[in-house]
């Protein structure tokens, strides 16, 4: 076997993303020789033991990081700062700290003050997931052919970037190095706003008067169904994303609202060309996703 990328990898938060990482390592031990999982929820720890997807399991993240050469934070973005503050003093000198958070500027701001000069922090974000959460939801091929976005800070070393690049390539992803603010803007439009719209449209449907609401359930095997998949995502994760990428999300929502108003105007004034062009753009985007193999 080739030299493994890491000897001992700790995943803090073995939910959808963390357990998918652990499962992938279990399949490919050239990524890490030994895996440790840590989760403050005792039921998650119990389930990870039952699933046998980590070599060792701890309820206390502080205890779990001893001797690790890579620690992956796969917890909600609002919890990252506190956990980093607690674990960093117990990490091995020279170890890498990385994360999978959906927002980057907030996570970096929360973690950086606690990063000591002997720890390398490499912020990262795998652009892959589902509407499910928890250790049962993960699967080893989740990251296959997806993107992992790495957003180095001015203190991130090239050696750290190279190691995390290898790590995520071994998970099956392609890599892009992105500027931190740019990452948050792009994710606001491709991920955060679509979730906001999905949660909102379900709430709007639910607030209709009784008769129409029951029809939503009867006839929802249409476009609405696709929104309900996205809207069934985890409330804690998404509350944290919305509160931690506020500026970019509000900016994209404002643009979207303007475009929705333009569409409303076109419908009111029967502007066939505008309506047709808008629909055609949507179809083109869908086709390019299929061509780029970004649809499972
Ligand atoms: N779900 C997705 O599609 C997706 C995709 C890419 C990135 N992410 C990001 O990855 C991270 C994990 O998301 P997920 O979907 O795997 O979540 P998840 O809810 O499936 O798992 C998160 C786990 O973290 C644990 N946890 C919460 N607070 C903790 C703490 N303080 N200490 C230790 N454990 C704690 C929870 O008990 C849970 O088991 C989030 O930051 C999210 O933004 C999610
Ligand atoms: O595929 C889904 O259902 C997801 O919600 C995954 C998704 C996304 O919006 O694309 C969600 C959050 C992430 O940070 C990255 C990926």
From TrEMBL:
Phylogenetic lineage: Bacteria, Pseudomonadati, Pseudomonadota, Alphaproteobacteria, Acetobacterales
Alphabetical list of Gene3D superfamilies matching this protein: 6-phosphogluconate dehydrogenase C-terminal like domain (1.10.3660.10), NAD(P)-binding Rossmann-like Domain (3.40.50.720)
Domain Prephenate/arogenate dehydrogenase: 7-296
Name listed for the protein in its UniProt record: Prephenate dehydrogenase/arogenate dehydrogenase family protein
Keywords: Oxidoreductase
SUPFAM superfamilies in UniProt: 6-phosphogluconate dehydrogenase C-terminal domain-like, NAD(P)-binding Rossmann-fold domains
UniProt cross-references to InterPro entries, sorted A to Z: 6-PGluconate_DH-like_C_sf, NAD(P)-bd_dom_sf, PDH_C, PDH_N, Preph/Arog_dehydrog, Prephen_DH
Oxidoreductase keyword on record: yes
Chain segments annotated as coiled-coil in the UniProt record: none
Keyword Oxidoreductase among record annotations: yes
Short name of one Pfam family: PDH_N
């Amino acid at each position: 076997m080739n030299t493994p990328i890491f000897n001992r990898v700790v995943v803090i938060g073995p939910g959808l993303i963390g357990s998918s990482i652990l499962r992938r390592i279990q399949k490919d031990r050239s990524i890490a020789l030994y895996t440790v999982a840590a989760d403050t929820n005792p039921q998650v720890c119990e389930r990870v033991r039952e699933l046998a997807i980590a070599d060792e399991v701890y309820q206390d993240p502080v205890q779990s990081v001893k001797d690790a050469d890579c620690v992956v934070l796969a917890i909600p973005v609002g919890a990252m700062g506190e956990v980093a503050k607690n674990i960093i003093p117990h990490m091995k000198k020279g170890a890498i700290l990385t994360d999978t958070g959906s927002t980057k500027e907030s996570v970096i701001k929360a973690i950086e003050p606690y990063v000591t000069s002997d720890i390398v922090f490499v912020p990262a974000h795998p652009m892959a997931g589902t509407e499910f959460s928890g250790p049962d939801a993960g699967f080893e091929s989740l990251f296959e052919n997806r993107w992992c976005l790495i957003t180095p800070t001015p203190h991130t070393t090239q050696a750290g970037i190279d190691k995390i690049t290898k790590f995520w390539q071994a998970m099956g992803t392609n890599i892009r190095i992105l500027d931190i603010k740019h990452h948050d803007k792009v994710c606001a439009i491709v991920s955060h706003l679509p979730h906001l719209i999905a949660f909102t449209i379900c709430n709007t449907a639910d607030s209709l008067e009784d008769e129409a609401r029951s029809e939503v359930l009867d006839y929802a095997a249409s476009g609405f169904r696709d929104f309900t998949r996205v809207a069934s995502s985890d409330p804690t994760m998404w509350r944290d994303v919305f509160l931690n990428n506020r500026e970019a999300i509000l900016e994209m929502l404002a643009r979207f609202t303007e475009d929705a108003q333009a569409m409303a105007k076109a419908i009111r004034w029967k502007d066939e060309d505008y309506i047709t062009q808008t629909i055609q753009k949507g179809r083109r985007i869908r086709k390019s996703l299929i061509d780029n193999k970004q649809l499972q």
